[in-house]
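2024-03-11 09:14:02 DEBUG pipeline.ingest accepted 1 chain
2024-03-11 09:14:02 DEBUG pipeline.ingest length=164
2024-03-11 09:14:03 DEBUG pipeline.predict start
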Amino acid sequence: MYGDIPDELRELIEPIVAEHGFELVDVERLGGQGSQVLRIIIDSPGGDGLVPVDGCVGVSREVETSLDASEAISGRYQLEVSSPGLNRHLGREKDFAGAVGHEVKLETRQPLDGRRRFRGRLLAFDGGEARLDVDGRPVAIPFADVAKANAIYEITSADFGRGR
């Protein structure tokens, strides 16, 4: 998915992330010329979201140095490097495959059946298509049409257990 960033920017960032032992999930550029935010989401190779803070810091420092040296971004920018988090960002096909059975919310690039925002249980992901149960009816959304997607963390009684 990689937001709508130029390939050369992604190609600059992805090898740095890999050198640190992580995988690039998504890159998103927000804002305009005067105030930009470059948001990079990384994950462990196992896709479990267990990225230590020092891993994010290391990637951030090296990406910032490379961006500044290459002048890949004109003007001022703020760099954010994070893991997918509780409401896990789904930026790759493998992220969707791993979220099967979970509640997800997503936004499409163009309206599908008159709407762009969907929330429901991800029933399956194969052939580059997400199949959701949205309000009791099946909805199929091609991966290429997804602009943003997140798995919704479902709080259970185990989250409030003692001895943690």
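2024-03-11 09:14:41 DEBUG pipeline.report The beta strands are 23-31, 36-43, 77-82, 103-112, 115-126, 129-134, 137-142, 146-151.
2024-03-11 09:14:41 DEBUG pipeline.predict end
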